[in-house]
Amino acid sequence: MLLPILRRLAEMLFVMFGISVVVFGIFFATPGADPAARIAGRNATPEVLAQVRHSFGFDEPLPVQYVKVMEKLFISRDLTSFVNRGEKVIPAVVESTPVTLSLVFGAAVIWVVFAIIMGMIAAATRGGIPDRLLMFLGLVGISMPVFWVGSVANLITQSRFHHTFLFSWVPGLGYTPLTQNPGMWFKQLVIPWITLAILYIGLYGRVLRANLVEAYQEDFIRTARAKGLSERRIMVRHALRTSLITFVSMFGLDFGALVGGGALLTEVVFNLPGVGRLTYVALQSLDLPFIMATVMYSSFFVVVANAVVDIAYAWLDPRVRDAR
Amino acid sequence: QAADHMGGTLNLTGASAAGTIDPQINYTSQFWSVLFITNDGLVAFKHVSGESSNDVVPDLATAIPAPQDGGKTYVFTIRKGVKFSNGKDVTPDDVVATFQRIFKVSNPNAGSWYNVIVGADACLKTPATCTLAGGVVADDAANTVTFHLTQPDSEFFYKLATPFGDIVPADTAAKDLGTSPAPATGPYMITSYDPQKNMILKRNPYYKEWSKDAQPAGYVDTINYTFGPKPEDEVTAIENGQQDWMFDSPPSDRLPEMASKFPNSIHINPLFAIYYAPMNVNIAPFNNKDARLAVNYALNRKSAVNIYGGPRLAVPNCQVLPPGFPGYKAYCPYTKNPGSKWSAPDMVKAKALMKASGQIGQPVTVIADDQNVDPALGTYLVSVLNELGFKATLKVISANIQFTYIQNTKNNVQISISQWYQDYPAASDFINVLLSCGSFHPGSDASINISGFCDKGIDAEINKNLITAVTDQKAANAEWGKIDAELVDQAPWATMFTPKQLDFVSARLKNFTFSDQFHMIYSQVWVQ
Amino acid sequence: MSDATTDATLPKTAAAETPEGPWRVALRKLFRDRTAVGAIIVLVLIVLACCAAPLYAKYVSQSDPFQSNLDGSITLDGNSVDIMQADTAGLGLGVTPIGPTWHGQYFFGADNQGRDVAARMLYGGQNSLLISFFATVVTLVLAAIIGTIAGFIGGLTDTVLARLLDVLWAFPVYLLAISLSIVFISKGIQIGPFTIPSNSLILPIMIIGIVYVPYVARPIRGQVMSLTRSDFVLAARCLGVPSFRILVRDILPNVTTTLIVFAPLMMALNMLTESALSFLSIGVQPPNASWGTIILDGEDLLYTQPMVAIAPGLAIIITVLALNFLGDGVRDAFDPRAKLRVKKD
Amino acid sequence: MTIPSKPMLKAESLHKTFKVGSRFRAGGIQHLHALSDVSLEVYPGEIVGLVGESGCGKSTLGRCLLRLYDVDDGRITFKDRDITGLSQRELRPLRADMQMVFQDPYSSLNPRRRVGDLIAEPLRVHGKHSASDVQARLRELMELVNLSPDFLTRFPHEFSGGQRQRIGIARAIALSPSLIVADEPVSALDVSVQAQIVNLFMDLQEKLGLTYVFIAHDLSVVRQIATRTAVMYLGGIVELGETDRVLHRPAHPYTAALISAVPEPDPQGNIKARTILRGEPPSPTNPPSGCRFHTRCPVAEARCSAEVPLLRALGDNRSVACHFPLDGSAAAHA
Amino acid sequence: MPADLMTANPDGTLLDVRDLCVSFRSERGIIRILENVSFTVREREILSIVGESGSGKSMTSLAVMRLITDPNAIITGSITYKGRDLLKLSPKEMRALRGREIAMIFQDPMTAMTPVYTIGWQIEEQLRAHQNLSRRAARARAVELLGEMGVPAPAKAAGRFPHQLSGGLRQRAMIAMALSCNPSLLIADEPTTALDVTVQAQILELLLRLRTDFGSSVMLITHDMGVVATVSDRVMVMYSGIIAERGPKPDVLGGPTHPYTLGLLHSIPPMHGEKPHRLPSIPGSPPAPMGRPAGCPFQPRCEFRMDACASRPPLFRNGMQEASCWLAEKGMPDWAHERAIRAAGEAA
Ligand SMILES: Nc1ncnc2c1ncn2[C@@H]1O[C@H](COP(=O)(O)OP(=O)(O)OP(=O)(O)O)[C@@H](O)[C@H]1O
Ligand SMILES: Nc1ncnc2c1ncn2[C@@H]1O[C@H](COP(=O)(O)OP(=O)(O)OP(=O)(O)O)[C@@H](O)[C@H]1O
Ligand SMILES: [Mg+2]
Ligand SMILES: [Mg+2]
């Protein structure tokens, strides 16, 4: 039992290592990315530049620099930013995590609930008007660029209709920690939640419907009917339960990716200081330590999500549980 | 009655933090405004509104010393009784250590400003062992510090008055302090700083006002500087009273609304800065002077001004120095009616010059950064170039690398969009820094002479004038004006405009005080 | 005995007189799907409209959508109206571009540079469509090559490629795309004697194309693996057909179906990605436009002239929606799984 | 029929294991012993039937014989040539001489290719025929399998199961092989069609002098077609001999049980005396010790669980792998 | 009027299907799958339905269960179960009947059981759906049932998932589930097709026992004549959506009166006696529902084809046996005689 876990861990480490190398490589392939000049200031003399370069170790071979960065990131854990010098990277990432978690978690609740409702209604009325309407709406949701939805939502709630009773409660953009002011936390996040959830409601609703419809063609549904079960029970306990296997694994992967920074666009549009925005800012300012840290963080979540999904898969689908 | 306005919290906001708060390293106007009220140098710019904010007054020194030894030696007497926020006294040793530290921490201008100090060369070579022996000498008994320069420097006091010259305790680590503040001497001290979130300033318990000009006491109790929101959201927050002031310029989209709804919250002040398009005089097509002139004639500075926010927020400019700056003499040849003022582009002349240059059809890439109005200015410049007959394209790159990217000759940048804000009120800060042979370093990311312009004759004039300035500032300024005009005639740039500073403040913020050097003085405004 | 005579009966389900290949069957199915046909029509209209951009710019909007027009004016209902209108109320700060006129000129209004948004949208549509189309081609081709090689050759090659895909897979798409964009857009690419300038459309095409490779390559690899083990490939092996011929004749045609099914969906995805990158100003470079960059332009005018951001957003939605509908239709028509299910019953 | 003394195909103690399971899951990789110590000789002109329960390794053996799978151990000789170690490339010329017909007439025909293409594929890759030759040969083949040559331009999905199986057969005989391994070629077909195909196999053998290894799970089909029959159980041959002898006087208890379990459409004999085996076949990943059948064997004794019985000759031209072979007459039906 | 109707209930008729037609609306018109299928199942009887793939066997059973959910299906006729017409029941009434009165098992026990629940759970579910049982009692009953079906270590097996069991055990679990509420009628749709002969024999044995142990009637659907011969009382042969022949097993298997039944019986290679040199076989393949010939659907493949075949023959009765063939109109056809003459002709 231990061996597979170790293998799994090794595989995760490998993937993270690969990603860190890719990021490091990309960064140093960027012209002008040499942080020395930026660190040195706007009219530094070449001598000062050389000093800075040396003191930051930028004159060392890339592998050495790589190892140093990783050492500082994982072992001494005191990697600091190139842009906001002295700013420790790890606390910054840790601090932005709750923001991203708040965003993604709330959105996830919305999208799971609505997607399940939507999928079930559509599957139950398959071919009918509600089905077609819901599937169309789902497709519209999938087709909307999230940043655009966010912008339009901002336009409506922050400006155009901010003074009507509908949206007067919407506070300014930003994030208030749950611990500090739960009401504010909620109010500030509702619109981002919905914005982020729209895409996934469409996606999951459609996938769930397809799975349910497929499940309905399975023999075991016929068996369940032959057992004299009610349609509702057949839907929930048999069709939905088996369809949830794909649903949950999709959810796991998406949730992991979002927590890992995939909600970047939403965070940028709604000015939520989460990991996605942190990553984006770091990428924009070519702040290598931050880029490394956020990308490691995000790949960690993706990799962990992959592993969790595997476990969840086995938990949901006993066929997978047994080594075949 | 000023006492009625004491207390409260001043809420400042900016889209992002500006890096380290080490006074010897930070080189951003955003945090210089903060350091302006937390730390002091031997001398300081006056903490007042208006023109006199460009004056240097004694700060930690008791007086501005008279030059000795033909301007090569200055003896400062250190003020007694001033304490750091850690409770220790400011001593001559601290001053010596501070100037050593400038080299030890690789201050960006160590090599360009402070290299006049005796012993600086050795410090530049091996910063770790910097002593500045014979350059900065403390005399504890007399409570003085003596500076020995290798040559006279008319701008030496200015260089001491910027935050680089802020005195820090001798035991301050000789490395970038990063996010931890240096002990303060001013009325406020930074108590916490998280670049992702905010900076908090509280009153410095050891501060006692010693000179109202140099470092007056502050009104508010706390200053909370929040980082993160986009300029749009900053505007909204100020409108709603959640913030008092924003560092970023408000998006032009919001200007009409702000102007009509909150006219009293808007303060517009001149800036000593220019927006310009440096042209690389060493590679095609702008190694051809006619081509450069054509661009200058064709550039509709009114359009550029409109992009920036309209005529109230910027003034067209053709020259190197911004209006009102020491040495400024209005001069604009690149207009319909050449003279002192730009009126309209002269397309006919531009096209003729273009034809003469033989550069029609040449490909040109404009490099702009991705912040604020720069992409829009770049886009506009591309239109102008295309109209002239170039095959122009725009390349927008991250603001973080654009500035170094356009400096490095290896990148073969032909033309770009850039800005320059003064460091201190001396014409050399534009002319000498931006267009002298000495600031052109081919192949280096640090080559602030972006045009790569190097005219031996003009360079000689500049050097001569720098000496003149030590003794006769007035004559020097007149000469700077002439040099400026000569440079404009060579057209290494197409200057676009000089922006103005628009400060948008909350309704409750009063006693708005604007220093030409450091903009809004946080210690002087009221929120109660 | 009777069965010695030739068996000439064919199930009459194959009603067609001429033999119909799987391709034609699928196409027939596709063209019978009303939603899919509707989607195709919409797409064709959009493509035609975008192709007509120069005509529109010249004859309808009468402006150059790539040249700033900061001090121009147009005639509207007999009055001359400035395109960039300086604010006169209050302090008179700011300059606002003209809003939607709902006339030929400046139909959707002007952007910050005084350019006709409607005309730019048509040009931007060209880029958006081009990028998403060719990025799809890049993704599908690379994915097909990698997936097929990995799945067909197996062994060490497969392990290496699969690991590589794993790494890319664990890299959130946007992060990878943004990283690559920032690098390449600041520099361009130099491959030997060829230089791809940083404002070339090839860059976003390559970047978007590459980041989605694992999403397609993985299923392709799986499919090729199972095809490689399928009875008919075994049969071909048994007949002594060389591996390469098996690959070309037996495996690739089946993979092609999958690619076709993926194509519209990938294109929809790519269009969204392209717009997102452009929105983050690391996609199409100004003054060139794409729907994403126009939204970005509009973002700066959201409070005064929201139409500049809304119109291209709607264009994206309609196009992506049509692509997704087409994708559904194509999947229904081509998905071999659907066919298998019919067979089994 | 007289059996020549020299086998056409000779397999000597073949072993084949598959790796199943995943490194990343509980249980890890397991070894599935699909074939253990299987020896078989096929003589020219005969039809060897191969029967046994699902999963006992019939297909695996068939595929190993044709080197579609690599064997782990053992030796395969085809026409006096050791083909065990040949690479697929080296095997290619030999393919013309040994062919396979697959069980599933649906999955063994590439749905994207025309019937003519499918059948012509071997002709083309072996390059012995010119284009017009190919056409002529195609017609000939279609006639041989009783299909109209008009069908050549059609796609497999338009055909019924029986017709598809004919296409598969036509493809297999296209190069006039001398050996055909038919892997349950009739199992997927309806009874009425099954008879047509069985007849076709027999006709072809007569006309072309083919040799078959005919895999089936239906004993009556094997009885109809095979000259010799091998009975497999859990990866090994338990009994091998002339079909009639094996089926009517089984010597191995498993063969006996298998035969007695076959339901027969005999209207009178309502319920025949049956020895119904209890339990299910054990897992091939974890085969029982000793005689693999001992867990279900009605006559097993202690020795059976300890000692592996070897396949040994019984005299009447057959061999059995059992410590206690049945008295042939006891198991035979009247 | 067929004689069946008169003898409907008196001799213990459980299920009476009359003129059952099932068709599907499709783009290419109406596809007629079942045409006028009528039959009865008596109490404690095993009725086998045989026929080739696609002949409509499953469709018949699904129609009885009212499990044809396709909205395009058109079902006419009557299905009378214990005096009630199933086609007229409300969905709720039908649901109460399903599983309790009429139970069904399917060909492939792997796909026919929900893969994510243990078999114990699935049996429980059915018990609890129809009987007011506590979970514990239901589980106990489920284990008991599994034991009765000959599942070794039933308590342990109840905790297993379908995929963890072998095919035979799965099929037993299916049967246990079907029998859990003591149904009067068990419909078994090819219950042994997926199994090996040795396991199949076990299952058939079990089916035979049902009648004695549970008193159920069984409708056994298969395409294997051997299975028919082994277990059934009466046989119904279907061909392309119609009933070709039906009657008591010994009669139908011993003396078929429809050429299709005859062909079917002859196509099976015999296990005993002389091996035919060539297997007699039916040429061609069964027609698809859309491609059914006019008249007798078997006509194109029939070696006794005659002019009358152009019109559809009704079921002709000969003794206990009925066949839908014009040859049967005049009584029992003399196959033996016919075939002997043909054989002689061929040999010559
Ligand atoms: N490629 C493979 N990988 C792993 N296991 C395999 C593979 N092929 C066959 N097996 C396993 O080997 C064993 C023998 O399989 P084989 O297909 O030879 O049986 P069979 O007798 O042909 O069965 P059937 O009658 O079902 O076709 C089975 O347990 C099967 O699961
Ligand atoms: N929803 C449907 N629409 C149209 N035709 C259908 C539908 N469902 C089944 N059929 C057709 O009905 C016919 C009868 O099917 P049925 O399943 O009853 O055959 P069967 O006798 O049970 O065959 P098998 O032995 O293969 O199970 C088949 O030809 C099938 O293709
Ligand atoms: Mg097999
Ligand atoms: Mg069926």
Automatic annotation (TrEMBL), chain A:
<feature type="transmembrane region" description="Helical">
    <location>
        <begin position="185"/>
        <end position="203"/>
    </location>
</feature>
<dbReference type="GO" id="GO:0055085">
    <property type="term" value="P:transmembrane transport"/>
</dbReference>
<keyword id="KW-0472">Membrane</keyword>
<comment type="similarity">
    <text>Belongs to the binding-protein-dependent transport system permease family.</text>
</comment>
<feature type="transmembrane region" description="Helical">
    <location>
        <begin position="290"/>
        <end position="316"/>
    </location>
</feature>
<dbReference type="Pfam" id="PF19300">
    <property type="entry name" value="BPD_transp_1_N"/>
</dbReference>
<feature type="transmembrane region" description="Helical">
    <location>
        <begin position="242"/>
        <end position="270"/>
    </location>
</feature>
<keyword id="KW-1003">Cell membrane</keyword>
<feature type="transmembrane region" description="Helical">
    <location>
        <begin position="133"/>
        <end position="156"/>
    </location>
</feature>
<dbReference type="GO" id="GO:0005886">
    <property type="term" value="C:plasma membrane"/>
</dbReference>
<dbReference type="InterPro" id="IPR035906">
    <property type="entry name" value="MetI-like_sf"/>
</dbReference>
<dbReference type="InterPro" id="IPR045621">
    <property type="entry name" value="BPD_transp_1_N"/>
</dbReference>
<protein>
    <submittedName>
        <fullName>ABC transporter permease</fullName>
    </submittedName>
</protein>
<keyword id="KW-0812">Transmembrane</keyword>
<keyword id="KW-0813">Transport</keyword>
Automatic annotation (TrEMBL), chain C:
<feature type="domain" description="ABC transmembrane type-1">
    <location>
        <begin position="129"/>
        <end position="327"/>
    </location>
</feature>
<feature type="transmembrane region" description="Helical">
    <location>
        <begin position="36"/>
        <end position="57"/>
    </location>
</feature>
<dbReference type="GO" id="GO:0015833">
    <property type="term" value="P:peptide transport"/>
</dbReference>
<dbReference type="GO" id="GO:0005886">
    <property type="term" value="C:plasma membrane"/>
</dbReference>
<keyword id="KW-0472">Membrane</keyword>
<protein>
    <submittedName>
        <fullName>ABC transporter permease</fullName>
    </submittedName>
</protein>
<dbReference type="InterPro" id="IPR050366">
    <property type="entry name" value="BP-dependent_transpt_permease"/>
</dbReference>
<feature type="transmembrane region" description="Helical">
    <location>
        <begin position="307"/>
        <end position="327"/>
    </location>
</feature>
<feature type="transmembrane region" description="Helical">
    <location>
        <begin position="167"/>
        <end position="189"/>
    </location>
</feature>
<keyword id="KW-0812">Transmembrane</keyword>
<dbReference type="Pfam" id="PF00528">
    <property type="entry name" value="BPD_transp_1"/>
</dbReference>
<feature type="transmembrane region" description="Helical">
    <location>
        <begin position="251"/>
        <end position="272"/>
    </location>
</feature>
<dbReference type="GO" id="GO:0055085">
    <property type="term" value="P:transmembrane transport"/>
</dbReference>
<dbReference type="GO" id="GO:0015031">
    <property type="term" value="P:protein transport"/>
</dbReference>
<feature type="transmembrane region" description="Helical">
    <location>
        <begin position="129"/>
        <end position="155"/>
    </location>
</feature>
UniProtKB/TrEMBL annotation, chain D:
<dbReference type="InterPro" id="IPR013563">
    <property type="entry name" value="Oligopep_ABC_C"/>
</dbReference>
<protein>
    <submittedName>
        <fullName>ABC transporter ATP-binding protein</fullName>
    </submittedName>
</protein>
<keyword id="KW-0547">Nucleotide-binding</keyword>
<dbReference type="GO" id="GO:0015833">
    <property type="term" value="P:peptide transport"/>
</dbReference>
<dbReference type="GO" id="GO:0016887">
    <property type="term" value="F:ATP hydrolysis activity"/>
</dbReference>
<feature type="domain" description="ABC transporter">
    <location>
        <begin position="9"/>
        <end position="259"/>
    </location>
</feature>
<dbReference type="InterPro" id="IPR003593">
    <property type="entry name" value="AAA+_ATPase"/>
</dbReference>
<dbReference type="InterPro" id="IPR003439">
    <property type="entry name" value="ABC_transporter-like_ATP-bd"/>
</dbReference>
<dbReference type="InterPro" id="IPR027417">
    <property type="entry name" value="P-loop_NTPase"/>
</dbReference>
<dbReference type="GO" id="GO:0055085">
    <property type="term" value="P:transmembrane transport"/>
</dbReference>
<keyword id="KW-0813">Transport</keyword>
<comment type="similarity">
    <text>Belongs to the ABC transporter superfamily.</text>
</comment>
<dbReference type="Pfam" id="PF08352">
    <property type="entry name" value="oligo_HPY"/>
</dbReference>
<dbReference type="InterPro" id="IPR050319">
    <property type="entry name" value="ABC_transp_ATP-bind"/>
</dbReference>
<keyword id="KW-0067">ATP-binding</keyword>
